[in-house]
Amino acid sequence: MAKVTTMEELFLGELRDLYDVEKQLMEALPEMARAASSEELRNAFEEHLEHTEIQAKRLERIFEVLGERSNGRKCLAMTALINGADEIGAANGDAAVRDAGLIAAAQKVEHYEISGYGSARAHAEMLGDDRAARLLSESLYEEKEADERLSELADTLINEEAAPKTRGAGGSGRRD
């Protein structure tokens, strides 16, 4: 975004950022699903891919109504977050620990999306674009649900399975 002088320009930049985020995730989520050893985690990634495709279509509808192009923006923050997830997914070692790392990486992505959709929705509301605000709210709700599901998987399954793999399990790991 070289120049931002109006809220409309800012809003368009946010939408383009979110659209690139969803496009990058459509490529990354199948890889994350393949890297997951937990069937529940794999299913969560596959389900989120379906939501991601719907979210991209919602953004396309907003661009269409606005008469604007959806391309032209590369979200470098998402590229970095996905690279981190790729590193974890490709790591050798204990599968449960890798799954715990994949959840952590996925939640970083979710938090980025929650922030982006929340800001874009607020700006749509401010600009009086009720339709865009409603569509963005739907995606925001889905992102929050995905984050909650990942937290639940971590808390009830994945982290417990990975916990015995910690150095010095049951203690501080220090030798006195």
What does this structure look like?
This protein is mostly helical. The protein has a single domain, classed as Ferritin, core subunit, four-helix bundle (Ferritin). 78% of the residues lie in helices and 0% in strands. The chain contains five helices and no strands. It has helices spanning 7-35, 39-66, 76-90, 95-126, 130-162. Helix 1 (7-35) runs antiparallel to helix 2 (39-66), helix 1 runs parallel beside helix 3 (76-90) and helix 3 (76-90) runs antiparallel to helix 4 (95-126). The N and C termini lie far apart (55 Å). 35% of the residues are buried. Residues 171-176 have low confidence and may be disordered.
Blueprint (SSEs and pairs):
Layout: H1 7-35, H2 39-66, H3 76-90, H4 95-126, H5 130-162
Helix pairs in contact: 1-2, 1-3, 1-4, 2-5, 3-4, 4-5
- First and last CA, distance: 55 Å
Per DSSP E runs of 2 or more residues, the count of β-strands stands at 0
The CATH class turns out to be Mainly Alpha
Helix content: over 70%
| Strand proportion | under 5%
* Oligomeric grouping of the chains: single chain
What is the typical, i.e. mean, pLDDT?
90
Q: Major sheet: size, sense and barrel closure?
A: none
Count, helices? 5
As for the CATH topology, it is Ferritin
What gyration radius follows from the Cα positions, in whole Å?
18 Å
CATH second-level architecture: Up-down Bundle
The helix/strand class is: mainly alpha
Low-confidence stretches: 171-176
* Element pattern in H and E: HHHHH
CATH homologous superfamily (4th level) name: Ferritin, core subunit, four-helix bundle
Shape assignment: elongated
Number of structurally distinct domains: 1
